[in-house]
Amino acid sequence: MEASFATRHEGDSRFWAALWLYILLIVLLGFREPVSERFFDDFQEPASPWLVLHVWSFAAWLVLLAMQAWFAATKRIDWHRKLGVAMLPLAVVMLVSAGTAEFAAQKREVAAGQSGAFSIVTLTYLTTFAVLVPFAWAARKNPPAHKRLILMATASICAGAHLRTISSFDPALFWESQSYFAHLAFGFGGSMLLVAMGMAWDLYSRGALHPVYRVGAPILFATYVVAAWLYGSTWYSEVSTAFLSTP
User: Fold this and answer.
1) Contacts for 96 with CB less than 8 Å, ≥ 6 apart
2) Deepest in the core among 31, 114, 123, 195, taking most CB within 10 A?
3) Cα Rg of the chain (Å, integer)
């Protein structure tokens, strides 16, 4: 089935560039205020070394993605492959730094009397990224599959930026809502939207979905469905709060 899928379309470069700009805009909107508060506001708790490492590694990931897309579009395949080697350890740094910083943040929230339920949201972001990146690496000799797996991996860690962007307008939409659909739409909708954009481009430019989307997208979306249910469940809230309360 994949053999008949067109590797390139004349509009690919413009689409991927526009998608990257959209991701950059959402990240800037979503994290501008919290980064400013933690890094530059003396009245806020200063950023921990793990958080600093996470911020810079995440920024590096976005920059390298743009460079990778440019190298591929301009046929600089050697540079594209060399840079790809650097992105694998960077992904590890992102996971370790984000996981450590988020775990510490969740423990502080629980110590302040909050529920630990949000841990399932960030855990889902990180787990899906951790699963998708190795698949993307394994598919690096198959450019169409590789590119779409990278999009899905990046989308999984950008969902938090969408959530923060929405919360900046009305925090109650997610944080105070008891609606399962609100938890799904606002907690994970940003990731689903990015993947849906990629799928829509495939349908428009090729008339069919790439196998990566046909197989991977339903699994990814189902993972979000379960995670949103766990976030709103009393059972997970009690278990996660008890776990994060341990010294």
Assistant:
1) none
2) 195
3) 19
